[in-house]
Structure formats: structure tokens, C-alpha cells
């Protein structure tokens, strides 16, 4: 129930955070020759909101496992910014299935310069799978410690 309450609070906050960045770019670029389509902006906004929400829930699940939120934050940020970039070079075949890389595909529009391995829906599915696995493990460990 804590994770559900966290999701209820996180979704609007993630939307506001993502909207501030996306809408600012939209407002600043509306008079330029480069036109941002509303559909692309909405897809990016929804993807970024989902990414922030799933990352928050993943961090909360790790916090339940470690019984503290600060070490969970350190573990997750360490994975996102240190471990995952290092493993991309050593494990190129599975690099797109890490939660940070899969989450990237949730909000980034396809580019002609780069080969997009995952679609936004596949990125969402992989990120949700990571989050649900950690929430399930957290629930199991929490129940075992509670008894």
C-alpha cells in the first residue's frame, strides 16, 4: 500500500517536473523554423512522467530491501550513473535492458542518427518489469521480517 500511495503522489509531481522542461522547450522554440509537433510533445511528456514514476517506485522498493532510503538512493544513482555506463561497454548485448537505458526509450523520440532497439512501449515494459520484480522481492522480504 505504501508503494501505491507513493505512485499516487509521484505521478502528478513527475508530470509537473517533466512538463516544466518540455513546455519550456516548446515555448522557447515555437517561433523558430524547427516546429515541435504537439503529438511528439505529449508522448515525450507521458514517457518522462512514467520514467520518473517508475524510477521512484524502484528506489522505494530498494529502500524497503535495505530498510533505509538514503542507501537505496545511493545504490540506484550509483547504478544509473556509474555501473550502467561501465557495463554498456562490457555487455553490449543486454545494455538496453537495464532500467535506466530502457527508461530512456520511454521518452526519447526515435532518431535517424541512432538505431533504436526498443520502442517506447517496450522500454516501458522493461522498466515496469524491473520495478515489479523489486517491489515483489521487497514485499516478500518485508513479510518475512515482519513475522
Structural class by helix and strand composition: mainly alpha
Q: Label the overall shape.
A: globular
Largest sheet: none
Radius of gyration: 17 Å
Mean pLDDT: 84
Helix content: over 70%
Termini distance?
Answer: 18 Å
Low-confidence stretches: none
Topology:
Layout: H1 2-29, H2 38-66, H3 69-90, H4 99-107, H5 120-146
Helix pairs in contact: 1-2, 2-3, 2-4, 2-5, 4-5
Describe the protein's architecture and organization.
The protein is mainly α and 147 residues long. Helix content is 78%, strand content 0%. Helix 2 (38-66) packs parallel to helix 5.
Give descriptors for this structure.
147 residues; mainly alpha; 5 helices
Overview in brief:
This protein is mainly α.
Amino acid at each position: 500500500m505504501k508503494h501505491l500511495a507513493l505512485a499516487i503522489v509521484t505521478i502528478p509531481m513527475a508530470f509537473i517536473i517533466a512538463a516544466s522542461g518540455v513546455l519550456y522547450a516548446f515555448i522557447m522554440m515555437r517561433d523558430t523554423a524547427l516546429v515541435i509537433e504537439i503529438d511528439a510533445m505529449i508522448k515525450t511528456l507521458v514517457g518522462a512522467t512514467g520514467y520518473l514514476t517508475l524510477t521512484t517506485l524502484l528506489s522505494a522498493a530498494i529502500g524497503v530491501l535495505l530498510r533505509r532510503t538514503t542507501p537505496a538512493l545511493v545504490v540506484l544513482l550509483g547504478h544509473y550513473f556509474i555501473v550502467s555506463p561501465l557495463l554498456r561497454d562490457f555487455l553490449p548485448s543486454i545494455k538496453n535492458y537495464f532500467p535506466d537505458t530502457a527508461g530512456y526509450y520511454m521518452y526519447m523520440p526515435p532518431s535517424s542518427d541512432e538505431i533504436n532497439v526498443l520502442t517506447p512501449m517496450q522500454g516501458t515494459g522493461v522498466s515496469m518489469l524491473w520495478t515489479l520484480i523489486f517491489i515483489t522481492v521487497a514485499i516478500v522480504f518485508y513479510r518475512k521480517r515482519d513475522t
